[in-house]
Structures are given as C-alpha cells and as structure tokens.
Amino acid sequence: MTGDEQLTVDLAHRLYQQAVMGNTILYPAVLEGKERLRFFVTDEQSTARSACSPNT
Fold this sequence. Notes:
The protein has 56 residues and is α+β, with helices and mostly antiparallel strands. The protein has two helices and two strands.
C-alpha cells in the first residue's frame, strides 16, 4: 500500500520497466490515501523472480 496516487503510478511504471507487473488500485476503487499495487503470482513464475517477492 502506497497511500499516494502519483507514487503508485510511478512505482508501477518503474516495476514494469524491470519486467514486473503490478496493477494500480486507485480511487474510486479504494478510498483516497489507500492507493496500492496488486501483484499476482502464478506457478509459471520463475524461481529467481519469486525469490524477490515479498513475504517469501
């Protein structure tokens, strides 16, 4: 959770440049100040990439 719309968009763009897809969740889908990135991990994800994932 970033809590800032512009920061969320900037982070998503920077991650995309590194081949990481993080979907932006912005107002009105969430309350202002609750902006966030959403990630989906699949079994097709490489071991090297999943080692960089949070909470692993």
